[in-house]
Please model this.
Amino acid sequence: MTGTLYGLGIGPGDPELITLKALRLLQAADVVAYPAPEQGDSLARRIVAPHLSGGQAELAIRMPLSVARFPAQAVYEQAAGDLAAHLKAGRNVAVLCEGDPFLYGSFMYLFGRLSEDFPVEIVPGVSSLTACAAALQYPLVSRNDVLTVIPAPLDDETIAHKLLHTDAAAILKLGRHGRHWPRDDREGRIRLSARSRRDLSPVVPDDPRRGGPVAPAAGHRRTGPAPDPCLRHARYI
Model:
């Protein structure tokens, strides 16, 4: 009998935000695998470190994290082969995924390579979207609002267009892609302005003094056209 592959969402960074199910499967797994940079420690492993039972085999899936080289197909091919060997030997494998496995999660690349040959179970995790809203005590959407999730690597013009055509938005992947946006170094905040329906260009305010705290997931809520720029707020975490 083959082992089972578990894709575990481990939340946005707080070790206490892992679900009970993910915790149980993590501690029972024979092998724990996690993404890691080409050099240095794995953030995913650091998140679950307080929960590891010890005695488990570990597999660091080291990959380039630059936009130009990601996803690294050769890395996933090798990792899928390594995991398949464990699964064929009857060992259960838990693959850690920051946030949620299927919300921009790298686990999907392993899932695509292994799901036809082995049993797979996906455990959803707390995403940065909901974690930011909770930390801010700022609801993302209400009633019939439409929420748009925007990846930060998109160009500013595309982001501006999407902000104009939704009720609320969250911008993900700001960690490595928001450097060109004004930042308040004292509090680690990024500023973003949303203008009226007629003009949302540029996305970044020319005058940093007009900015407000943003975050991302950075949050944006539009209440309708306004003659003056309207600042939308969220905090970077």
Q: What stands out?
A: DSSP finds seven helices and 13 strands in the chain. The chain has two domains: 5-126, 129-231. The radius of gyration is 20 Å.
